Amino acid sequence: MRLVRRFKNKPKAKKFRIKNGVKYQVLNIGGRELEVRVAGQAERDEMKAEFAAFKKSPVKYIRKQNAE
Questions:
Q1: CA atoms of 13 and 32, how far apart (whole Å)
Q2: How far is it, in rounded angstroms, from Cα 18 to Cα 43?
């Protein structure tokens, strides 16, 4: 009987680049390096507030978005 050894991915350190004051995460997919923009702290706070408003009252949130 053979011993089954499972392959486990080791977590790799994330790579970041900063271009013109904007932070990008570098992903290596298929031998190519892709740069994905990382949200800043102000953008994260804005998104959290938006999600909280939606969770509080989804109908009100949708009506407000449609009114704009």
A1: 17
A2: 17
pLDDT grade for 67, boundaries at 50, 70 and 90: confident
Q: What is the pLDDT of residues 43-61, one digit of tens each?
A: 999 999 999 999 999 998 8
Q: Quote the number of domains for the chain.
A: 1
C-alpha to C-alpha distance for 16 and 24, rounded to whole angstroms: 6
- State the pLDDT at residue 17: 95
> What is the identity of the amino acid at 35?
E
Amino acid type, 41: Q
How far apart (Å, rounded) are the C-alpha atoms in residues 63 and 56? 13
27: β partners: 34
Q: 59 in a domain, yes or no?
A: yes
Strand, helix or coil at 54? Answer: helix
Residue range of the domain that includes 52: 15-67
